[in-house]
Amino acid sequence: MPGIHDKPPYRAEHVGSFPRPDALMEARERFAAGKIAKAELRRAEHAAVKDIVAMQERVGIGALTDGEYRKTGWRDFLFEKVDGFGPPTSHSFTFTQFDGTSWKPTGAERKAVAKLERRETLAAEDFVALKPMTRRPIKANLPTPSIAHAMSGAESFDHAVYRDVDAYLADLARIYREEVADLAARGCTYLQLDEVPLALLCDPKNQAIVRERGEDPETLIAKYIDVINACIAERPKEMTVAVHMCRGNVGHGMAAGGYEPIAERMFNRLDVDGYFLEYDTPRAGDFTSLRHVPKGKTIVLGLLTTKLPDVESADALKRRIEEASKSIALDQLALSPQCGFSSVARRGGRLTMDQVERKLARVVEVADAVWG
After folding, report:
1. Residue whose C-alpha is closest to residue 298's, from 3, 17, 61, 11
2. Which of 5, 116, 176, 243 stands the most exposed, by the fewest C-beta atoms within 10 Å?
3. pTM: predicted TM-score of the whole model, two decimal places
């Protein structure tokens, strides 16, 4: 099967999420309004996941997901399923967009107001629901714990509950070790961790914001690497873990600049098997930072954009892969879109499902041509 290799990350990959179908969004809205029972919502989710599984099988992508169809967003389920987080806060980064204007995320940051406890599994039950739908490889997705700190800094936790950021991150890591153990017990052998803050801290503007609020960006980079390692420290040897580095999946400017400021530490200190890296626009820099990647680790080049509908040409993608191979061995590379196709549950994605399928088919086509 094109795109399939012995061990993940596979040559032809995708990040995880897909546009939500209208029927699923209608069911979510009706459930939120109290018009249908949870069982009916679950049936709508099941039907939508079956359809997205069939599409992924049809194109032959390397590892399948449930499209994030059972989640409200790529990170929100962490706050929704862990007790101890309070309501949304107003503390967050103020980002500078590429046109020079500013914007601030709203309604997504949560503060830990009590000791954190995992009320239910974060992704393990979703994995169990997906598993019998296909015989193809599947993967689970989790946000990294740094997202529960980076945007709000010292305001992300009550200091009467956690004495400092180290205690807070350590407790988050404990929750993640519990989740990884549950995933492993259910047969998960491929886990993807979605990491935004480390990518944001590549940008000097964001480093300046961190300094202005009284923190050292270099110290935070080290802490975020350490907490990921702590999350997966007890994973079984047969579980592959990859980290998706993301600068955001919308037109807002969240970060610019290459991975060089964190590359050596990220590639050598993070105890993971692969990295999904955004390379769909010049804001990600060039490929030279890949010279720091040690043997045995895979880089998944996010060369196709999920922001625009036009399908990238096969020749252009091959040229970029060849360019990357000047900094790292071709055998250590793979291909994917730069991000998921719908990071949050909403009506009306940027791309139609037909456009999404054609993009994934192009990923498989090019991966098969380059690596065989």
Report:
1. 11
2. 5
3. 0.94
Provide long-range contacts, Cβ within 8 A and 24+ apart, for 235-238: 235/180, 235/184, 235/191, 236/184, 238/189
Preceding peptide of 87 cis, ω within 30°: no
The dihedral of CA 257, 92, 69, 232: what is its sign? positive
Q: How many Å is the maximal CA-CA distance in the chain?
A: 57
CATH assignment, 22-371? 3.20.20.210
DSSP type of residue 268: H
Q: How confident is the model at residue 3 (pLDDT cuts 50, 70, 90)?
A: very low
What tokens does 72 get? 């409200």
Average pLDDT over residues 94-115: 70
Single-letter residue type at 116: L
Please say if the pLDDT value at position 227 is more than 90.
yes
Q: Kindly compute the dihedral angle of the four CA atoms of residues 102, 108, 111, 116, in this order, to the nearest 10 degrees.
A: -150
Tell me the per-residue pLDDT of 247-266, one tens digit each, with 9 for 90 and over.
Answer: 765 555 566 678 999 999 99
Helical residues (DSSP H) of the chain, grouped into ranges: 22-32, 38-59, 76-81, 124-130, 165-185, 197-200, 204-212, 217-231, 260-269, 314-324, 353-371
Q: What angle do CA 19, 24, 29 make, to 5 degrees?
A: 115
Q: Copy the structure tokens of residue 68.
A: 């994030």
* pLDDT tens-place string over residues 14-50: 999 999 999 999 999 999 999 999 999 999 999 999 9
Domain ranges (residues) in the chain: 22-371
Are the C-beta atoms of 40 and 95 separated by less than 8 Å? no
